[in-house]
Design a protein that fits this description.
The structure is a homodimer.
Chain A lengths: L11 H13 L8 E2 L1 H8 L3 H14 L2 E4 L3 E4 L4 H25 L2 H19 L3 H18 L3 H21 L11 H10 L3 H17 L13 H5 L2
Chain A binds a DNA duplex through helix 3.
DNA sequence: CAGGCAAAAATTGTATACAATCCGGATTCG
DNA sequence: CGAATCCGGATTGTATACAATTTTTGCCTG
């Protein structure tokens, strides 16, 4: 399995990239522990480098580092989950509008290619990959808007969205993706900012509505609790 | 002068806190270099700790670390400067609205106290301190809105705003601060979300308009270039 | 046999040693 | 005299050694 196998001496960025991808594609689930030595061996570097990588990912919100206990893939709470999508709802519509004003033919082709890959991944049953591509799609739009500061924030939000979806997505099977992205690209192609803004707003609401954000028991981490009736 | 003098063994957070404060108050100017050994001696810790602190501040956008060259207080470009205030204009008005809905008497007292300190600092001629307090004021409002994700982003934006102001503020002397904060607190006290939102929007535009964001020459760092006619 | 205690192993946190790179000044050559 | 080059010191980057903490394991006792 060519998963996280790098021969030797990777940079911090490469490690962050591969680990981030693994989390985005749900190959690493929320709660999973990343032992430093293990990561060291996989990438063939010293703990100095690995610790830098883990710390970066903590800043992104992807990992939570507990003192003296280690780095774990973050498990957003319900409140955090809501906040992530509230923040996206605040940021992304206006970003889509800006993108509509600036998108050129090249950008549109890129986005369409993105959607193709996304559908292909879904057809192959690779839901994790499709999810990551979907996130990248949103980031591409932010990039087109030429707002690096916002893009940087959105990167964090998309990362966290991936965690939220891992924890709170309703049906494990049907990962929708209707044709919201298609419609968005159409609006961008026409330079229709109003429509792009509205479509983005609706799209985010749609995703949000498919999350199960009701109060629930903390996932019982203790075997004892899990077995008592 | 009790500036950055800590006796011994500080934590990463303490170092980040003190250095951040120094940047926010313009005691450390954009472009200033932070040598690792120097910071080590000041705080009485090893480079391991200092490097963690510097890296944190790089993520906040406060420092820029150039490979093999060191950590410098960031110098936002014109584009970045504009983006920072565009992002704030996008985020803060709705945050002010949310704060108006949630603010209790205690919060209002806190904010008023904040404004007092700000004016006192201005009267004493401590413009840097006043600026930092002004940033904290905005962060307090975000905290009241109970949106930690947004608050986290705003923290970065306020940090960068401090750098932008250091670089692009028009008149070095009169650091305005009219009574915009007073008006905002009034709206919050009354729970008037609409007004709070509008006031915040106007306040940010006001700050933005006092920046000198025209294209300009890169400050010539070379004496030779400065002398040739 | 359950529960608690203690030692050992495993893991993370910090300091230090060593390697790589950069910077400034002196030297040499055109 | 000016420019390029090379060297030594200074500074940052990485690996490793050691300390502190947690987790596991095994033993002992009630």
């Amino acid at each position: 399995m060519p998963l996280l196998t790098e021969p030797k001496t990777a940079t911090v960025e490469e490690i962050v990239g591969q680990l981030t991808e693994a989390v985005h594609e749900h190959r690493l689930q929320p709660g999973a522990k990343l032992r430093e030595d293990e990561v060291c061996e996989i990438f063939g570097v010293s703990r100095t480098i690995v610790r830098q990588a883990l710390r970066s990912m903590e800043f992104e919100g992807l990992l939570t580092i507990e003192k003296n206990r280690g780095a774990f893939v973050s498990k957003p709470t319900l409140k955090e989950a809501r906040e992530v999508f509230q923040a996206r709802a605040l940021i992304e519509p206006s970003t889509a509008r800006a993108a509509a004003d600036r998108a050129n033919a090249e950008d549109i082709v890129l986005l369409e290619h993105h959607i193709e890959q996304e559908h292909a991944a879904l057809d192959r049953g690779e839901a994790g990959l499709a999810l990551k591509l979907s996130g990248d799609f949103h980031l591409e739009i932010a990039r087109m808007a030429d707002q690096q500061t916002i893009e940087q924030f959105l990167r964090q939000l998309v990362s966290r969205s991936s965690l939220v979806i891992a924890l709170y997505w309703r049906r494990r099977n049907a990962l929708c993706e209707s044709n919201a992205h298609h419609a968005l690209v159409d609006a961008l192609r026409k330079g229709d900012g109003d429509n792009a803004e509205e479509l983005m707003k609706g799209h985010l609401l749609d995703i949000f509505s498919q999350l199960d954000l009701r109060e629930r028991q903390e996932a019982t981490t203790s075997l004892k609790d899990a077995l008592r009736r």
